[in-house]
Write a structure and sequence with these properties.
Elements: H1 3-16, H2 18-55, E1 60-65, H3 89-96, E2 101-116, E3 119-128, H4 132-135, E4 140-143, H5 148-153, E5 157-160, H6 162-169, E6 179-182, E7 185-193, E8 208-212, H7 213-221, E9 228-233, H8 239-254, E10 264-268, H9 269-312, H10 314-322, H11 327-367, H12 378-404, H13 408-413
Parallel strand pairs: 3-8, 5-7
Antiparallel strand pairs: 1-9, 1-10, 2-3, 2-6, 2-9, 4-7, 5-8, 6-7
Helix pairs in contact: 1-11, 2-9, 2-11, 2-12, 3-8, 9-11, 9-12, 11-12
Length: 415
């Protein structure tokens, strides 16, 4: 039997039992759609996270207190409940004098309730030097940033996130020059960030209070040390050279002669991106592996249905063999039916998965502030079609083989 004839026969057979064919494909449809959706969500999450990190600037160098962690990026020690006082303002001054560094900024942080009138919200607050805004590429939607004079004088001024501004002041009242309380300390709002999203160390930029570091250290935290130093490398220098110069300056300041006894950790933007990229890729593959379980279940369902179909069509098989069909012809017909079921189910699954991914993007884009990005990796489509074809062959071979080896005389006698 020619392949085109076998294809037509298989198609007619599947169309004859439409409801059975649809129910048989359902497992494959759900499995492929799940793989598409989860891989797309994983890719979107990866693009979002890496985009947030890259938006801070490709020449950023992050210095945190504590011993090096062998290239693994971690949150500041303060965020882990560990108090390490090794970083001081003199370290910032030394780093700033390095020609390979454009500027360096200090950073401390905490969590407190922010109050305006009857409105309140518990958020992260950050004490920074005035140049932190340029180092981190932070832009304002309203007002202005505080100055070095505000930091030196310990003025009670703050810049807040846009979501916090909306929570405290609503959409009609301007936050500028209004007085808010942070830990019962009064501050005047001088600016509002232009956008929210995830910032450094996973902090929500939409709900944040940024104030002069001197006020945060003395009046809110009661400390003299720093949680983090952010340095912006000079683009005319290699960032790894800048990193080595910062390392040299800090070792001099801390009296360290043995490199194995460093009490600070330095990460470049490239280090962070590499680690995050690996983590998110593993996460995406893990999601796809979970979704693939439903593909196996769907494939087993197809094999069971095909075995039932072989039994029901025993007389048909006997008749075909009686008029000259070979074992190979029978095997080919049932195998084509199996592949058609899985391939069609895969195509429908891809279409449904793409539709759900698009719907998720539209909802998150219009009703959230997380900056979700649309990602529909071609690899997921290729994987869906490939898995569909393989499943059709793998789970169709046994039923097709069973059909092909039937004795024509016994098949014709079958009731």
């Amino acid at each position: 039997m020619l392949f085109k004839d076998a294809f037509k026969t298989s198609t007619r057979s599947l169309m004859h039992g439409k409801m059975r064919s649809i129910l048989t494909m359902l497992g494959i449809v759900i499995g492929i759609a799940s793989v598409i959706i989860l891989m797309s969500i994983g890719q979107s999450a990866q693009d979002l996270i890496l985009g947030q990190v890259q938006s801070v600037g490709s020449n950023l160098i992050i210095i945190t207190p504590g011993a090096p962690n062998n290239g693994k990026f971690s949150s500041p020690a303060s965020a882990q409940g560990i108090v390490i006082t090794s970083l001081q303002q003199r370290d910032v001054d030394s780093i700033s004098r390095e020609p390979s560094v454009n500027e360096a900024a200090s950073f401390v942080s905490g969590i407190a309730e922010v109050v305006f009138g009857n409105n309140n919200k518990t958020v992260s607050y950050q004490g920074v030097t005035s140049n932190m805004f340029s180092v981190r590429n932070l832009t304002l939607g309203k007002g202005f940033v505080f100055t070095k004079g505000d930091v030196d004088s310990g003025n009670h001024v703050v810049v807040i996130g846009p979501d916090l501004a909306n929570t405290l002041f609503g959409t009609t009242l301007s936050p500028i020059d209004k007085t808010i309380r942070v830990k019962n300390v009064s501050f005047r709002v001088v600016g509002v960030l232009s956008k929210g999203g995830v910032g450094a160390f996973g902090v929500d930029q939409g709900n944040i209070v940024i104030m002069p570091i001197t006020v945060a250290q003395k009046q809110l935290l009661g400390i003299s040390y720093l949680n983090v130093i952010l340095a912006q490398a000079n683009p005319t220098y290699d960032i790894n050279f800048a990193k080595s110069r910062i390392t040299f300056a800090l070792r001099q300041n801390h009296g360290i002669t043995d490199p194995n006894k460093d009490d600070f950790n330095i990460q470049t933007q490239a280090d962070i991106l590499a680690i995050l990229g690996t983590i998110t890729s593993i996460f995406t593959l893990f999601l796809a592996a979970i979704a693939s379980i439903s593909l196996i279940v769907g494939g087993i369902g197809i094999m069971n249905i095909m075995l039932v179909s072989v039994t029901e069509r025993t007389r048909e098989i006997g008749l075909r063999k009686a008029v000259g069909a070979t074992n190979g012809d029978i095997l080919q017909q049932f195998l084509i039916e199996s592949v058609l079921l899985t391939f069609t189910g895969g195509a429908i699954g891809i279409a449904i998965g793409g539709g759900v991914v698009g719907l998720i993007y539209i909802v998150l884009k219009n009703f959230s502030s997380i900056g979700w990005v649309f990602a529909f990796p071609i690899s997921s489509v290729i994987l869906g079609l490939l898995v569909s074809g393989i499943a059709g062959i793998a789970f169709g071979i046994y039923p097709a083989y069973q059909a092909g080896k039937k004795n024509p005389i016994d098949a014709l006698r079958y009731e």
